Amino acid sequence: MDIRYLKTLVTVVEVGSFSKAARALHLTQSAVSQRIKFLEEAYNYSLFDRSAPSLTLTSSGEMVLESAKQILGIQDSLMEKLKRIKDRPRVSLCCTPTFGTVYLPGVLNRFMLESGSPVDLKFLLHSPDQALEGIQNKEFDLAIVEHCAGDNLGRFQTYSLPQDELVFVSSPKLNLPTPNLDLETLLDLCLFARKEGCSSRQLITRGLQEQGRSLDDFSGVITSDDLRLTCQTVLSGGGISFMSRSLVCEYLKTGQMVEHYVEGFPHARCRTVIIEKGRENEPLLRSFARCIFKVMDVPSPI
């Protein structure tokens, strides 16, 4: 069984509610509920007394909780022992797709050139919530995420990078006004959007809500997690997208795409380096983080 489900149960009990556990684990409350339901179906027992006035474990729930703590303790102990093995250094990192596509190749190249000795690298592209959960569960040593302002990152050691600018982009074939464009014109088009949990989707949803509209008001919405496919479709005139300017800067320079801004719309998101608290002074992580800031061409705070 995936230990994240057991971690969710322990967290729910520790913080006293599903909503607080969702915030602590950087999940939605629905995701927390689904994980608890999965455990109940897997063990064929109710873990919580739904008739109680407050969060109360059943006797079966108490038993599962005790075992969950033991399993998680064994997992943590194993991870620490593996890290102490005198073997080739390893760095496991996670980043959101935009950073991974635009900047990560340069960061990896610089780190390997500067490290001076062989280092094993593992990297994955995930949504912000998945990246934060991975840091918390010790799956990743370091994460770089684009995220909305106001996200709670207080549980981690963080270092801010320059903000990421997002723009609406289209093909010149659509002959849309540029750079400023009214929302009503955009709503007549098909929007290529990222999946739920991605900050670009959260930003466009927030911007629409502030103007009394929603994604349903577009003539069509196609959800795709393939950035290259989205770019190719926009280039062909098949619709518009709301995406990082850094992803499409070459298309904008050559005139293959045009950018659009909607007045009052949020066009920027945060970009942050994240490390588990207490690990920020580890030489290998410091070295990798410094390479990130060098590639971004900003002074390193670490």
TrEMBL record:
One of its GO terms (molecular function) is transcription cis-regulatory region binding. CDD domains: PBP2_LTTR_substrate. Gene3D superfamilies: 3.40.190.290, Winged helix-like DNA-binding domain superfamily/Winged helix DNA-binding domain (1.10.10.10). SUPFAM superfamilies: Periplasmic binding protein-like II, Winged helix' DNA-binding domain. PROSITE patterns: HTH_LYSR (PS50931). Residues 1-58 form the HTH lysR-type domain. Pfam families: HTH_1, LysR_substrate. NCBIfam families: decaheme_TF. This is Transcriptional regulator, LysR family. The lineage of its organism: Bacteria, Pseudomonadati, Thermodesulfobacteriota, Desulfuromonadia, Desulfuromonadales.
